């Protein structure tokens, strides 16, 4: 399986785009119960930061990027440029967190 290059820049240095294949996305939604469970453990909070909470955000971000890469791979891309990551609280009473990744799939 070929690795898909992911970049927040609009182009890749030394690898000009031959084909622009379209916008690709990846989304992950994490339920609030998970966040409540994480905050219940005060031991995880060190220096005002929650390691467990940061781990969940990292995992959600990685999964969103992996899903976006999979969608780009289906289009025959070998890179994604202009990547943007967004975090949004959704659901009734802000009960869920959505992490979304989007960018333009290209073939260089």
From TrEMBL:
Coiled-coil stretches noted in the UniProt entry, renumbered to this chain: none
Pfam family, one: YbjQ_1
Highest taxon, organism lineage: Bacteria
SUPFAM superfamilies in UniProt: YbjQ-like (SSF117782)
HAMAP family in the record: UPF0145
Family note: Belongs to the UPF0145 family.
Matches recorded under PANTHER family: UPF0145 PROTEIN YBJQ
Protein's recorded name: UPF0145 protein GGQ90_000341
């Amino acid at each position: 399986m070929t690795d898909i290059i992911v970049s927040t820049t609009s182009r890749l240095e030394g690898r000009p785009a031959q084909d622009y294949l379209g916008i690709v996305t990846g989304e992950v939604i994490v339920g609030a119960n998970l966040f409540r469970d994480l905050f219940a453990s005060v031991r995880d909070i060190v220096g005002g930061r929650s390691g467990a909470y940061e781990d969940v955000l990292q995992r959600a971000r990685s999964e969103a990027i992996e899903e976006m890469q999979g969608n780009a791979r289906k289009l025959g891309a070998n890179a994604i440029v202009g990547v943007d990551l967004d975090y949004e609280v959704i659901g009734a009473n802000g009960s869920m967190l959505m992490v979304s990744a989007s960018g333009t799939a290209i073939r260089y």
